[in-house]
Write a structure and sequence with these properties.
It is a single chain. The chain is an alpha/beta fold and about 270 residues long. The chain has a single domain, classed as Rossmann fold, CATH 3.40.50. It is built from nine helices and seven strands. It has a seven-stranded parallel β-sheet, with helices on both faces. Helix 1 links the parallel strand 1 and strand 2. It is globular and about 55 Å long. The mean pLDDT is about 95. The structure holds nicotinamide-adenine-dinucleotide. The site of nicotinamide-adenine-dinucleotide has 29 residues, from helix 1 and helix 4.
């Protein structure tokens, strides 16, 4: 397919982990994929594996608005101007009790996980607006259901992603840009290298990158379910991935907050 005739997706943090698996999932469906990462060599390697003409890759530091402007211009040149989907996937995690982790590491978590997503949405907006039926999917986390001890700033950053997703879903709906978040629990990726948090031991790592990639791909597709008037029902704003995350998210909506606190106190052995 030539540029402009097929859908295009730009994924941040796509050199490895969930981003890389998601890039492969969309490429398999014939999308043009933008693979961008702080690890430029890794991004280029992933793009080359997906195939010349099917993916382009390069460097992106999501904390830098200038990088976003450059990458979006480069990617939309290759896509014939289209940006059907932005996936804000880049993220970092530093575990440990808040006071034991250097303050610079907390600040970097907020810079990448929160400001990085705001930067991406801000820079991509004109391209999304110009592309009919476009959308944004943000990588949130089950740690945005209830604040998680030992990963406090990471958990707080994902609460911010949750809030940003909900706000933009409302703000951009009249312009036809849908905004969604996908919420995995623990997944075995480089993010967990050296991570030590009680919830990791309590809940275990039960998801693969392909499980999450599949959930992201499914969230991006039209629901196919029609309401009473025959109109397609809107896509869900939030998608929890895997049974434990779905159970925790549903329970948090149903039980009083003191029970949620007690469940999370036990999960984090606090
Ligand atoms: N692994 C999990 O258990 C888990 C669970 C829930 C949510 N998530 C979220 O999924 C997303 C992907 O995580 P992952 O598990 O694949 O981790 P990962 O460490 O395997 O991949 C993250 C990627 O982001 C890149 N990155 C880091 N800082 C960046 C920056 N400033 N600019 C651009 N790229 C940058 C890294 O180089 C890396 O390639 C993250 O947002 C993470 O919070 C992960």
């Amino acid at each position: 397919m030539s540029a402009g005739t097929r859908p295009s997706v730009l994924i941040s943090g796509a050199a490895g982990g969930i981003g890389r698996a998601t890039a492969a999932r969309f490429a398999r469906e014939g999308w043009l994929v933008g693979v961008y990462d702080l690890d430029a060599a890794g991004a280029e390697r992933t793009a080359a594996e997906l195939g010349e003409g099917d993916a382009i890759g390069g460097s992106l530091d999501v904390t830098r608005p200038d990088d976003w402007a450059r990458v979006l211009a480069e990617f939309t040149r290759a896509s014939g101007g289209r940006l059907d989907l932005l996936i804000n996937n880049a993220g970092i995690l530093r575990s440990g009790r808040l006071a034991d982790v250097p303050i610079a590491a907390h600040h970097l978590t907020i810079d990448v996980n929160v400001k990085g997503v705001i930067n991406g949405c801000h820079a991509a907006y004109p391209y999304l607006k110009a592309t009919a039926g476009s959308g944004v999917i943000n990588l949130c986390s089950a740690s945005a259901i209830y604040g998680q001890a030992e990963i406090a700033s990471y958990s707080a950053s994902k609460f911010a992603v949750r809030g940003l997703t909900e706000a933009l879903e409302l703000e951009w709906r009249k312009e036809g840009i849908r905004v969604q978040a996908v919420w995995p629990l623990w997944v075995n990726t480089g993010l967990l290298d050296g991570a030590e948090a009680s919830s990791l031991d309590t809940l275990g790592v039960n998801l693969t990158v392909d499980d999450v990639a599949e959930a992201i791909y499914a969230a991006a597709r039209p629901s196919g379910v029609r309401g009473l008037l025959g109109k397609a029902l809107p896509r869900k704003v939030h998608t929890a991935v895997g049974l434990p995350a779905k159970t925790l998210a549903t329970a948090a909506d149903l039980v009083p907050s003191f029970i949620s606190r007690e469940v999370n106190r036990r999960i984090t052995r606090s």
